[in-house]
Amino acid sequence: MSSKIEDYGLIGDCETAALVGRDGSIDWMCWPAFDSEACFAALLGDEKHGRWKIAPSSEAKITRRYRGDTLILETQFETADGTVTVIDFMPPRGNASDIVRLVRGDRGRVAMRMELILRFGFGADIPWVKRAPNGDLLAIAGPDMTVLRTPVKLRGEDMTTVADFDVSAGETIPFVLTYGRSHLEIPAPIDPERALLDTETFWGEWVSRCTYDGVHRDIVIRSLVTLKALTYAPTGGIVAAPTTSLPEKLGGSRNWDYRFCWLRDATFTLLALMNSGYHEEALAWHNWLLRSVAGAPANMQIMYGILGQRRLIEWEADWLPGYEGAQPVRIGNAAHAQLQLDVYGELLDVFHQSRVAKLKLDDGSWAMECQFLKHLAKIWNKPDSGIWEVRGPGKHYVSSKVMTWVAFDRAIKSAEKFKLKAPLDHWKALRETIHRDICEKGFDKKQNAFVESYGADVLDASILLLPSVGFLPPSDPRVEGTIAAVEKYLMRDGFVLRHDPRRITEEKEPIEGAFLACTLWLADAHVLAGKIEKAERLFDRVAAVANDLGLLAEEYDSGARRQTGNFPQALTHIALINTAHNLSSAKAPAEKPAVQRAK
């Protein structure tokens, strides 16, 4: 059985990542990339679907931490016979991808057990295991191959590679698992100790570039390291999470594949990176966006693969029972084909913010933006699927309409500020038309609040972004009324739900967890309104539910006191970074990220 979501730690090499349980078991790993098929899938089933566990043979008290500001995970096991630390990391990608596990004796002599269960194809494919001439252990299934190197004697038991060994104080025993394509030569071995030093140096140098120095520095640094770990280095694309099908509702069916890159997160991501000193990563993200959306404006998607792939076909892995029985397990994401009008605003906002920050843009980007706006002028008044990717008939979602306003607003600002050729009169007229349409049809006078969609009587947490994107000032009575309504109807145990509990649905499942990014959006709205203490309380509440390693999932179930949804989630950590900047800038002359968008 898999562990609680919050009991996992993250390791990665900026091309893929693995989840390591508190018990020393790697229960999730897609190789060689984030969107590849998993070779360890116990997270969504049990040990027979693949895992790699190294732990003491007897009971132990367990503590863990990251080594400084790195992605090197250290799990300490304290037993009656002694203490041992398992050091897990993935070195920066060289000619191959490696997982290194160093078993270090700290005190006494501890009996250890290693169990390696490789199951390619999301737990379905049992590999052919054999010895290489030099004694290395090879596992091959179709295109995939791994090689395990260790001085420990290995043996096979019931389709599992096992080892029983002792480790004494002062002794370190290495295990290195390396991935390669089965038709190629076996990857060359690495020096585990040298790899540890290189990995520590890599993260130390990267973190040293951070310019954030506020009171929340520790959790901001951990969020930035997590964001870097979720970045596919060859292209600059950032996945929403390294996992699929961790349920938004424990035991429910809202289980989606998040191993792709969402345009919804674009401007939030850009500002989080730029304001923290990471202009190189911000530019790489911008360039990934530019390449991915290139083509006919009508074909723009809400998400793409890490290489910019467009066809993210969704299917179900019916042999996996799901996390704690939550079914189905979905691979791919059918929402990629939805119409979501908000992505046009995100795209244009990213380009505008990039120009303001003096990032070097492609010479053809403005012409492309103009073509997107030409298309948006024809479709802005259509119903869509909304920011939360609701499956079923479209609606006129208020947040979607607001982001179409943002698209024209940012284009106008770019044209005026940077002297770019544009049909300004046409764009300004459209901007005014959209603004008036939203205020007339998306505002409920009875509740004194903007609602989820035109004509609806329920709310939606995405309307919290209205002041942050500059649609209306935070002092506008309609914005103040909306925030008050959100606090009245969408809050549970101090956290913000993204969907209104008053909404009638046919679902017979437990209510989903509070959406952590939305809780931070409420904090941002309070910052803009000058209510800093309220914002700080919300930030502290979110930070307090991070696990012992500083990692956060998509949602938090306050009733069960559990993290839910895919883990760790980029948008949650991005929102945390931006809110921390907002709070720090509220007490200093630096500009707040929310103000950067709002103005």
Structure description:
The chain contains 14 helices and 28 strands. The chain has two domains: 196 residues, Distorted Sandwich (Beta-galactosidase, Chain A, domain 5), CATH 2.70.98; 390 residues, Glycosyltransferase (Alpha/alpha barrel). The radius of gyration is 25 Å and the shape is globular. The mean pLDDT is 95. The termini are far apart. The protein has a 15-stranded antiparallel β-sheet that branches. A three-stranded antiparallel β-sheet has the order 26-27-28. Strands 16-17 form a two-stranded antiparallel sheet.
Beta-strand proportion: 15-25%
| Continuous helix count | 14
Query: How would you classify the helix and strand content by structural class?
Result: alpha+beta
Mean pLDDT: 95
In this structure, how is the largest beta sheet organized? 15 strands, antiparallel
Distance between the termini: 50 Å
The oligomeric status of these chains comes to single chain
- Top-tier CATH class of the largest domain: Mainly Alpha
Domains (count): 2
Radius of gyration from the CA trace?
A: 25 Å
State the CATH topology of the largest domain. Glycosyltransferase
CATH architecture of the largest domain: Alpha/alpha barrel
Number of strands: 28
- Proportion in helices: 25-40%
